[in-house]
Write a structure and sequence with these properties.
Blueprint: H1 9-25, H2 36-47, E1 52-56, H3 62-69, E2 73-78, H4 81-93, E3 100-104, E4 118-124, H5 133-146, E5 147-158, E6 169-170, E7 175-178, E8 181-184, H6 188-193, E9 198-208, E10 213-222
Length: about 230
């Protein structure tokens, strides 16, 4: 998929500093209860007999803690050091440290896991952050690499039917800056494009928040012969 307009890389890079500031200044920015998408993902993971989850963009750990409480071991990555420290502190307080491995990592770099080593991957709105299509292609390939054959990749994204799509400052491709945050909005075509090497199990629409935000919950399964 070739985008007609290149993303403004300098503005995308600045998002890391913006998120670090927000997460460090508001310890429970998104609340303490798990997201609806985490509850739905846990049902799918239990049905598939999943035990080890890779969570990308764990933020302040509300979904991480939920997964750990439900018996999963969670390897959580986030590029915010303050976010990772927050997760570690919460895990220790709730006596869940043995179920959570939290690491600061930029997902634009190779994932720090062996091939075919994890049962499933989960991310809530990580894909729709300030990432170009090329970076998303790389990430999708990396997730497929570390998943076991038949492993699930469940992620959520805001889609092009969302009220914020096309508003604010255009940052290239389908990225728009609204309220200081750059969002990459998804079409079903983009989801299908990023699903190479996976079987698409489902693309489900749902809403979240007061706007409300309109999202897709994407469920993919790594093909048995995919590397």
């Amino acid at each position: 998929m070739k985008e007609a307009i290149d993303a403004d890389k300098s503005n995308l890079v600045e998002q890391e500093k913006h998120w670090e500031t927000m997460l460090s200044s508001k310890p429970d920015m998104f609340g303490e209860s798990q997201s609806t998408s985490a509850s739905e993902a846990a049902k799918a993971f239990k049905k598939e007999g999943v035990s080890n989850i890779l969570e990308l963009g764990g933020g302040q750990g509300r979904d991480t803690i939920f997964f750990a409480k439900n018996g999963f071991h969670v390897h959580v990555l986030d590029y915010s050091q303050s976010g990772i420290e927050n997760i570690k502190q919460k895990a220790e307080t709730k006596m869940l440290s043995q179920h959570i491995t939290a690491t600061c990592h930029d997902i634009r770099n190779p994932l720090p896991f062996e091939n075919d080593s994890l049962d499933a991957c989960y991310s809530h709105m990580l894909y729709c952050m300030a990432l170009t299509t090329n970076e998303l292609e790389f990430l999708s390939n990396e997730i497929r690499r570390v998943l076991k054959p038949g492993g699930l990749n469940i992620y959520t994204v805001r889609h092009t039917g969302d009220a914020d799509f096309g508003t604010g400052i255009h940052r290239g491709e389908d990225l728009y800056e609204v309220g200081g945050f750059i969002v990459h909005f998804f079409s079903k075509d983009k989801i299908r494009h990023l699903a190479q090497g996976y079987r698409i199990v489902g693309i489900d629409e749902f809403e979240e928040g007061a706007l409300p935000r309109k999202l897709f919950r994407v469920t993919l399964k790594k093909k048995a012969n995919s590397t």
